[in-house]
Amino acid sequence: MLIAVLCTVLVGACSGGGGTEAKSPDLADQDRFLREYVDFLNESDESGLAGLLDAHPEGDEDARARIAAYGGQEWDVHWSRASEFEGVWTVDLTGTAHTENRPVRVTETVAWEDGNWVMAPMPGVAPTPSNAAGTQPPG
Fold first, then answer.
1. How high is the pLDDT of residue 82?
2. Could you give the CA distance from residue 74 to residue 86 in angstroms, rounded to a whole number?
3. How crowded is residue 118: how many other Cβ atoms within 10 Å of its Cβ?
4. Which of 115, 126, 137, 138 has an alpha carbon within 20 to 30 A of 22's alpha carbon?
5. pLDDT tens-digit map of 90-130
């Protein structure tokens, strides 16, 4: 969980905003964002997904990694969310994939940054800061 929060902070530090006043987060809008996310994955629409994830600098690379991992699987999912920090949600997507009804369980970190929904990049997509938790030897 700490790493997910650190990734979200890193993503937030890199996302744009241009000094415009940000609107408050609306969970109905987060539902729209998540529906589009699932639709783009099901369609294996890399450019659409990259557009949705463009609030962080690695949006294109992250979209490519997500399509490779989850694309075209015909997800039929619902989600639940919890928030331990203001503006940051842990979203659990659960349901089935393909006609075989294989179980789907994916957890994402979604943050509200500068008026945009920002999804923490998949592991390995964004560089990890050298001073991030877990990267320093104990001592």
1. 97
2. 32
3. 24
4. 126
5. 999 999 999 789 999 999 999 999 899 999 988 888 766 55
